[in-house]
Amino acid sequence: MNTATHTPPFVLTEEHEQFRAALRQMAEERIAPYAAAVDREERYPSEGFAACREMELPALGIPTAYGGAGADMVTQAIMAEELARVCASTSVTMLISKLGMLPVMNFGSEDLKRRYLPRVASGEAQASYCLSEADAGSDVAAMRCRAVRDGDHYVLTGTKYWITNAGVSDTYTVFAKTDPEAGHRGISCFLVEADWGVKVAKLEHKMGLRGSPTGEVVFDEVRVPVANRIGEEGQGFAIAMHTLDRSRPTIGAQAVGIGQGALDHAVAYMHERRAFGAPIADLQGLRFMVADMAMRLEAARTLVYRACSVIDQGDPRGELSMLGAMAKAFASDTAMAVATDAVQLLGGYGYTSDFPVERAMRDAKITQIYEGTNQIQRVVIARHVLG
After folding, report:
1. What is the pLDDT of residues 222-272, one digit of tens each?
2. Among residues 193, 216, 233, 371, which one is catalytic?
3. Which of residues 122, 151, 181 is at a domain's end?
């Protein structure tokens, strides 16, 4: 191979750059003006979702055969990044339905794909992903939610916690024990429609991501047709891990966007704020902070794009679990550090809600926790490195 002319797949094409520019303009005009109110009022970012739907963003991650755009993963990462740069809650509205539908796309029957994917692609329907429980977050095999076969249905009983889009979603992708004695091998996966009896018992009041509803979802003897089982009985754990490997890089992209938004606001402030007779952007100590923030963000962004490109290539070397964990952990740690430094750069103003950097700091924290804590990501990485 002539490496001098070879372009790595995670270097952005002209089409990627054009998409970013168009999306950034839309986000600045249609989403950013509502972001502070969405956070303050803890309300669903309906304006942002409507703008995303007009731009046909829900279709990006859905195959063309089912009404989607079939966009590559780097394009989807750019979407997550640019939306999160102005409003992390709006970014989540685009990521969560893809997460909920990934098991259908990769393991579902043709019937399931044709019944559900087109509605998600059009933005008509939204989806949630129900894996975690009160005592089964990182320890997935400890889940207690049960699915008992009853003729041509399963009877689903249990409670799921920390469910994104609770009460908004039209479908819930639910993992439950069909064989409680078999540990992780006894978990199966189901696609459950909201109006079959899904109940939201509680919505959480959160530190950040306050425009994205997170709730406790209850299944009280909900009857689910056998046709809505995703994959085979006992395949649920493998489906869950396969799905998270492919969604974690976009959480990394979301984190990069949060950090980039914080840095951009800090830079703008530094040019305006004067101290000792000059803009504080001239102070070397602060310039070094900005340089470190920018370096870490660019490193995180490149790692995210690398992981995304491996997904597009079909993971030929079996490295996606490690790269996805690296991208998610490094990008979210970076977002938290960059947002914290952005607050510092604004001084007292940064600590108030008049400026968006304190919201970025609060929003960044969850990226270190959900879709696998960063401690779990380090377990995954170490396992791959050490063998």
Report:
1. 999 999 999 999 999 999 999 999 999 999 999 999 999 999 999 999 999
2. 371
3. 122
Per-residue pLDDT of 318-347, as tens digits, reads 999 999 999 999 999 999 999 999 999 999
CB atoms within 10 A of CB 140: 20
DSSP symbols for 302-335: HHHHHHHHHHHTT-TTS-HHHHHHHHHHHHHHHH
Q: What is the distance between the alpha carbons of residues 317 and 313, in angstroms, rounded to a whole number?
A: 10
Q: Which pLDDT band holds residue 7 (cuts at 50, 70, 90)?
A: very low
Residue 133 lies in a domain: yes
Q: What is the CATH number of the domain that holds 302?
A: 1.20.140.10
Please, are residues 201 and 159 in contact by the beta-carbon 8 Å criterion? yes
What pairing do the DSSP bridges indicate for beta strands 127-130 and 171-177?
Answer: parallel
Which of 189, 210, 234 lies at the terminal end of a domain, its last residue?
234
Cβ neighbourhood burial of 58 (10 Å; 0-12, 13-18, 19+):
buried
Q: Note if 181 is an active site residue.
A: no
